[in-house]
Amino acid sequence: MQTIFFKNKPRMIATGSIAGPKECEGVVGKYVDKTLLDDMFGESTYEKAECKMLTYAISKTIENAGMDEKQVDMLISGDLLNQIISASFAARDFDFPFLGVYGACSTLAESYALAATLVDGGYAKKVVAATGSHFSSAERQYRYPLELGNTRPPQAQWTVTGAGGAFIADMGSVNDGQNYPAITCATIGKVVDFGVTDVNNMGAAMAPAAADTILNHLRDTGRKADYYDLIITGDLGALGSRILKDLTWEKGVEIRENHVDCGEIVYNVIEDEFQGGSGAGCSAVVFNSYIYDKLRKRELNKVLLCATGALLSTVSSGQGESIPCICHAVAIENS
Amino acid sequence: MQTIFFKNKPRMIATGSIAGPKECEGVVGKYVDKTLLDDMFGESTYEKAECKMLTYAISKTIENAGMDEKQVDMLISGDLLNQIISASFAARDFDFPFLGVYGACSTLAESYALAATLVDGGYAKKVVAATGSHFSSAERQYRYPLELGNTRPPQAQWTVTGAGGAFIADMGSVNDGQNYPAITCATIGKVVDFGVTDVNNMGAAMAPAAADTILNHLRDTGRKADYYDLIITGDLGALGSRILKDLTWEKGVEIRENHVDCGEIVYNVIEDEFQGGSGAGCSAVVFNSYIYDKLRKRELNKVLLCATGALLSTVSSGQGESIPCICHAVAIENS
Fold first, then answer.
1. Which helix (H) or strand (E) holds A35?
2. How are beta strands A182-187 and A74-79 bridged, if at all?
3. Which residues contact residue A299 at a Cβ distance below 8 angstroms, ignoring those fewer than 6 apart?
4. How far apart are CA B203 and CA B215, in angstroms?
């Protein structure tokens, strides 16, 4: 059993999000709280811009929940940069306890799962969970500095510049009569490694982890795939999404009708992005703006958010290792 | 309120640990499960050796608990390497769900706090929490490759080569009549930054975070400092430990009698280590061998483990940032 059930149904009472100029040309442009015209966000380095976006997303999430900082019991956050400095430095700006997590691009779902656990068990009443990423800081950390002008292979994805978070609270502590979406259960992933070594082909590396977690989630919950209005993965991209659909289909689970990938839909024009978006910011921006809006409007009522992460580093790749991947799934449902 | 209370008192039923040759010359040598004669552990790189140590610590923890892998519900782990590859690659070797965490050298206490939360709330019955570090991989990642032969300043510490973990289980699922130490509460730290920028002086950077968490812990629990037989910090080192004692004393809390730092006691001979040990492996090795043994023998009955972490990266330091720090505290008590 990999699935945790939340009997007290912690509520997701608000989200906050911010995205870069390229991202806001796409579907999320109308839904994010702030659109950046310049992806430096007034800072002198990409890393500082990434941290500032995450700080903004956390603040905005709290504001959108109608709360102030003093009411927040805990922040759970992580990001893609070495030593998760965006999250750590963002946490420095706030006066509440901080738990750092790392699951590469699966960080959003991991932080939601832990936030829901803390709230459901009565250990905290109000938790903010957030993550983000920045194209330019990710490129120079994981691949090459942009100044080198390296050619990108067709299977590559484009790290999303953006950040997003959610305010997860227990029902009793909100009590404003509104019916917010609840986190009903979470499936914690195992590390899955299919031996992919191409660091430009994250979709293929991560799809088996997504398939594993989705299949285990359905087994644990006794649900059919069509129980969900939407099974949304984090950043498999177009190729990875196709592989996922094939892998689940091979196991007798058809998700063709209700599966979409955040990376597939985040960009409007597929130019340099090839397979679409990626990064911790990908699901953070898409879920916390566009998808959450649809949940609140009840255009979607049952969503399974499956954020996938590739747990590699440049050192592990340089030492000839393949790419271990993970996927955590969180069910968010209107009642 | 930063403190979480565990009313069901999750038990720490076993630990597992491994340490390098230099470490085993000291007090932990008699207590660890495995002493390495060669810090490469038969691997071709320091990073692979670090990962293998962590894998060993996880396996040994499960074995020492008298369990097999199939009985483990979850692994919570993290480490100091970029993208926590030691933990992620170690998790690949096991068939249970994995939550990656990052709190630099505070990772042990963070993972214990989360494991206790999951077990106490009934979300998991048996959780392994582990971490580790390696002197040589940390040096080349955070400072300079060893081959450069850089001189170490007198305020520097020596990253511990070792790994350790604990098996945290609910009382009902063990039921062997033994009275194991319980995790009774955990205080989640805030990020504290006193503006220290010297990356060789981690003790001074982290001491204010340790003081903040200890003072908040005592306030939240209503306990006096002398409630604990031992208040043990993770890796402040000799200098940091002195600063901590001064900082708490200024606030009217005297911990001179019952405080010791893992980094201060881990090495026998202070040669190149100057202020003592550091790293995620420091508290992991000392607590999970020497201290746990004393808890089991009831030579110690109430221990507050306060693992401190410096949340910097080489990039943040290079960009002129100071060092944000954190400390999480976990109370482990015999009843």
1. strand A34-35
2. unpaired
3. none
4. 18
C-alpha A143/C-alpha A156 separation (Å) is: 11
Chain-chain contact of B98 with A314 (C-beta, under 8 angstroms): no
Tell me, what's the pLDDT at B322? 95
Q: Which region, left, alpha or beta, applies to residue A177 given φ > 0 means left and ψ of -120 to 50 means alpha? A: left
Quick one: angle between helices B46-64 and B135-142, nearest 10? 130
B25-63 per-position pLDDT tens digit: 999 999 999 999 999 999 999 999 999 999 999 999 999
Residue B271 has pLDDT above 70, yes or no: no
Pairing of strands A277-278, A158-159: parallel
- What span, in angstroms and rounded, lies between the C-alpha atoms of A95 and A89? 12
Task: Write the Ramachandran bin of B152: left for phi over 0, alpha for psi from -120 to 50, otherwise beta.
Answer: beta
Contact indicator for A263, A307 with CB cutoff of 8 Å: no
Structure confidence at residue A151 (pLDDT): 87
Task: Flag if A85 and B114 touch (Cβ within 8 Å).
Answer: no
- ipTM of this predicted complex? 0.97
Contacts of B52 (CB under 8 A, 6+ apart): B41, B42, B43
What are the residue ranges of helices labelled H in A233-308? Answer: 237-250, 262-265, 280-286, 292-296
Tokens of A233: 């993965």
Q: How far is CA B128 from CA A100, B16, B94, B123, in A?
A: 18, 10, 11, 14
Measured CA distances, A113 to A152, B132, B174, B290 (Å): 34, 25, 26, 34
pTM across the whole model: 0.97
Q: Encoding tokens for residue B212? A: 């903040």
Say whether residue A322 is in contact with chain B using an 8 A CB cutoff: no
Q: Is the CB of B91 less than 8 angstroms away from the CB of A319?
A: no
| Inter-chain CB pairs, A–B, below 8 Å | 161
